[in-house]
Design brief:
CATH architecture of the largest domain: Alpha-Beta Complex
Strand content: 15-25%
Domain Nucleotidyl transferase: 16-283
Catalytic activity: alpha-D-glucose 1-phosphate + UTP + H(+) = UDP-alpha-D-glucose + diphosphate
Keywords: Nucleotidyltransferase, Transferase
InterPro entries: GalU_uridylyltTrfase_bac/arc, NTP_transferase_dom, Nucleotide-diphossugar_trans
Family: Belongs to the UDPGP type 2 family.
CATH class of the largest domain: Alpha Beta
Order of helices and strands: EEEHEHHHEHHEEHEEEEHHEEHH
Structural class: alpha/beta
Number of domains: 2
Distance between the termini: 52 Å
Radius of gyration: 20 Å
Helix content: 25-40%
Largest sheet: 5 strands, mixed, barrel
Length: 308
């Protein structure tokens, strides 16, 4: 293993930031009055899976960066006394525990982004809360299966080397233009899932991607990201890209860097567009002990008769 062990001098991450200010236009009209993060994946809002992942990694202080018409997010993670009393009077303990679960998950905080200036700007809104400590960022479009924990591995690498860590996944070269893409170099003495990021390109043009490693929605960031984000120029859409700031830190290496990548090969459920959202719902429903057997039987019959 590498001899670069700096863990005694690097504070462990304890806070998570979840950007949730987007308008969710891909899911209109469903997202007209309901935040896309509150759309159910089986019977639980997508955002609850994300908070559960943060908590499972030991991050119980969660800041959600929201926008207009996102009040439902705060309500979901708050107590609903009237509903709890009703379920209690009925003796419906199973549903009562499900209702209470979301309000007991973590210490929730909220800040409004205000202007829709991109992911980098959303992360910048978290600076007053996280201060000078490293922190995790979890995007709600990516759901990571709890059987394949990713954040603990990322936190371990950040604790070892300092700087920032991004989650990477190999994707087909025909799809890499849909993602931020990382140029990488091997790290001596490390396992194959750890690489050093030497550069980042946001949605590279076809044929010009530096690798097949796509950045997915998990980050562990050092507080040095904030002054870089402050100076990062907006792109053509007026958005401040987090990948641009991380790319600059990757080239600095020692001044706010380095940036490492954890190559993830586990189960990931994409809820970023309608087709992927439907596939994620079907996959998770099939794996549920209470729903799976009956649902899988119906699915087999449906595909045999309707699609066969």
């Amino acid at each position: 293993m590498s001899t670069n062990r700096r863990s005694p001098h690097i504070p462990r991450i304890s806070r998570a930031v979840i950007p949730a200010a987007g308008l969710g236009t891909r899911f209109l009209p469903a997202s007209k009055a309901t935040p896309k993060e509150m759309l159910p994946v089986v019977d639980k809002p997508a955002i609850e899976y994300v908070v559960e992942e943060a908590v499972a990694a030991g991050l119980t202080d969660v800041l959600m960066v929201t926008g207009r018409n996102k009040r439902a997010l705060e309500d979901h993670f708050d107590r609903n006394h009237e509903l709890e009393e009703l379920l209690g009077r009925r003796g419906d303990t199973e549903r009562l525990e499900k209702v209470r679960a979301s309000s007991r998950l973590a210490m929730m905080h909220y800040v409004r982004q205000g202007d829709p200036k991109g992911l980098g700007h959303a992360v910048l809104c978290a600076e007053p809360h996280v201060g000078d400590q490293p922190f995790a960022v979890l995007l709600g479009d990516d759901l990571i299966d709890p059987r394949d924990p990713l954040l603990p591995r990322m936190a371990e690498i950040q604790q070892r080397y300092g700087g920032s860590v991004v989650a990477l996944m190999e994707v087909d070269s025909a799809l890499i233009h849909l993602y931020g893409c990382a140029a990488v170099a091997p790290v001596a003495g490390e396992d194959g899932d750890i690489v050093r990021v030497t550069g980042l390109v946001e949605k590279p043009e076809p044929g010009r991607a530096p690798s097949s490693y796509a950045v997915i929605g998990r980050y562990v960031l050092s507080p040095e990201i904030f002054p870089v984000l402050t100076k990062t120029r907006p792109d053509q859409r007026g958005e401040i890209q987090l990948t641009d700031a991380l790319g600059e830190l990757a080239q600095r290496r020692n001044d706010g860097g380095p940036v490492h990548g954890v190559v993830f090969s586990g189960r990931r459920y994409d809820t970023g567009d309608r087709g992927a959202y439907l596939r994620a719902t079907v996959r998770l429903a099939c794996e549920r002990e209470d729903l799976g057997p009956e649902f899988r039987a119906w699915l087999r019959e449906f595909t045999a008769t309707e699609l066969g």
